[in-house]
Amino acid sequence: MAQKPSIPKGTRDFSPVEMAKRNYIFDTIREVYALYGFQQIETPAMENLTTLMGKYGEEGDKLLFKILNSGDFLHGMTADEVANTSTLKLAAKFCEKGLRYDLTVPFARYVVQHREELALPFKRYQIQPVWRADRPQKGRYREFYQCDADVVGSESLLNEVELMQIIDTVFTRFGVRVCIKINNRKILTGIAEMIGQADKIVDITVAIDKLDKIGLDAVNAELAEDGIPADAIEKLQPIINLTGSNEEKLATMRQVLSDSEVGLKGVDEVAFILSKLGNLNNPIELDLTLARGLNYYTGAIFEVKALDVQIGSITGGGRYDNLTGIFGMPGLSGVGISFGADRIFDVLNQLDLYPKEAVNATQLLFVNFGEREADFCLQILAKVRAAGIRAEIYPDASKMKKQMAYANAKQIPFVAIVGETELAEGKVNLKNMTTGEQSLINADSILEYL
Amino acid sequence: MAQKPSIPKGTRDFSPVEMAKRNYIFDTIREVYALYGFQQIETPAMENLTTLMGKYGEEGDKLLFKILNSGDFLHGMTADEVANTSTLKLAAKFCEKGLRYDLTVPFARYVVQHREELALPFKRYQIQPVWRADRPQKGRYREFYQCDADVVGSESLLNEVELMQIIDTVFTRFGVRVCIKINNRKILTGIAEMIGQADKIVDITVAIDKLDKIGLDAVNAELAEDGIPADAIEKLQPIINLTGSNEEKLATMRQVLSDSEVGLKGVDEVAFILSKLGNLNNPIELDLTLARGLNYYTGAIFEVKALDVQIGSITGGGRYDNLTGIFGMPGLSGVGISFGADRIFDVLNQLDLYPKEAVNATQLLFVNFGEREADFCLQILAKVRAAGIRAEIYPDASKMKKQMAYANAKQIPFVAIVGETELAEGKVNLKNMTTGEQSLINADSILEYL
Prior knowledge:
Chain A has helices at residues 16-35, 49-52, 57-63, 79-83, 87-94, 104-113, 158-174, 185-194, 201-208, 211-225, 230-240, 246-256, 261-276, 341-351, 356-359, 371-386, 400-409, 420-425, 446-449; strands at residues 39-40, 46-48, 66-68, 95-99, 122-131, 143-152, 178-184, 284-286, 300-306, 315-321, 333-339, 364-366, 391-393, 414-417, 427-432, 438-442. Chain A has 450 residues and is α+β, with helices and mostly antiparallel strands. In chain A, helix 8 (185-194) runs antiparallel to helix 13, helix 9 (201-208) packs antiparallel against helix 10 and helix 12 runs antiparallel to helix 13 (261-276).
């Protein structure tokens, strides 16, 4: 036999069981998004490279999968021209299209391209794969799904409130206990302003984040190493030591930032959002060390951590201004979240939280003993399916052992056995594959029995 | 404003309304596949080019989208070497991966790669996009979805029976009247054998297919032009004039093909399949001119035509032997069907057959008059959503006119208006956007009302 075929590294096949689990995740997210009035769109896998290039930084440009132009991609370039052109520039000559790298840039492109058709604010969700030529490693793939929801065209903080409610509802439905963390870019800007170190804000949050692990003295030492002057470190002490309820933290921050207009605005925003959330099932925590994608977000920043599994952030998001500005349509503010489907898949696996109904496929298999018995089964099968029960007949009259092995492999909970005797009596021998119990029942009453 | 961004030609964005319709189509097909015990898999968008090349003919190789290798794709080739190598060979040097061209080859690759995990027969379905560098034209796209179901590892004709039942069930659910056409490659082989013109079978079916349009004499003239000898044309007359019910046609063919073992086997197969179908909602017709992908299919051939819309085939399929042989695993027979989602989309549009529930998104919008009113609405909103009603609040306290325009654009059927008066009385003014009717109701009773 020839060598086994394979797939490109960093990509995956999804088996029936994996697909059922993934569909459960996607369907749950989709349903909750729709419950909050978000509408689904899809964009093409391929975008023009002019749309994608320069949007993800220099490193991102290299990680774009580029698609070779069809036909004569050399465009009549001479050997000299090829020799005198860099690989990156040659790639740009040879390729007009690339695979989508995330869902945000295609969404921005969509909004600008279709602006005449859209009723703003536009609440869209999008669940599609993205591709990145990253070095594959455990938990990092070259093809993976993103599940984004964004609102553009509204600056109202009610959008932030609803996105946090969505997060809470989704994880409640999954049965996963999480902590929802919130921060605000304006608070971070205020802190940097207050201590006169606007350019050091990333270093500061990184250092503060280590408090639990290394203790206060080490944090302060690290801040000094980062070049933060002693008086600024002094001013930071109430922030580093920030504890208590969200209300207590907000009260402290309001004092600390009393001289910073933007900082106070950030505090007000967080306070407003927290006050409107209503009863959530999961705790919300103001976390000043939360700074994901700092250059990107301009207001609220969200992140979700699973409480019962050691894993990175499983959902994130925030507010950004001017998303569509890169495509010539300035002034649209937006806020969005993104569920990390692959990590959520791992969390639900580890906690064994998939509902049986979601993962089970076929509910009933008819064993096939030959044409006459099969004819009888086909009639019952039609009725069972008409009632919405997922059922099948083993297509060949193979050995009983093989057919039962098939039922086991597919984890089919009920097997209907109709041999010569049952056929003569118009009965079905129904075997419960979980308990092993067998019941001889009238063919007509199989629906009630199931 | 800069030039509007665009997407690559032959690709499409799908708007919320289009997505809702497409999801209705995919969900219906998915549900019926599952009802018959088929399980979903997904494969990566990118396959190794070694998997794809040579599987779709020379033309197909050219239509594959190839992905430029990351980094130094020149592999140290000199400029001279580049200049002296054909474009096709260069493409093979520069690219290791390509985008999936159909779902059949990736499925064959999947079966071989995962054979140890699979319980045969393997009934899988797969709904994913494919990409072809075809010249785009009306109704032909460079990215489009296929919706395939196949059974491999069973030669039983019950699989054919179930696939035809699936087709009948799907179109019944859609409310589309169709004619399901069936043929068998073995019958065609028998005909060619019988008249001693094995290599002319395509010409023969093409000519016969024109009977309705051009009449018997013209068909016979065309056959003669194709180089079919007079005695062979004479023998073909009962086949060209084949009319009557499926039973009558089969009886005729049994006589005509009485000397062809393979031909009779084909007749037996069709007769068996038709006898096991049970009561279908749509007519089935034996059509000897049906020869799609002749070199590919080895047994049954299916095709579905819509009765009330002028459009090409909307579903097709058949049995093929040795699908996995190309990957070194011979001897596996398979049979499958593929729904043409894009054409079905057009058919349902033309006949206006989308159920309202499938296309409607948000059911209720709360108008936003300011923070106090919004607070009141948020409480009702939480209850309404907990009851599973898709609802939203307009995030900004914009002008009433703008908010109502939003409700109209999103076709939201109910709008809840809570102004100062309603707030004071704990009431909601509920407007039915279809009838224009307004009802002042207690906030508590909104669920009953909806």
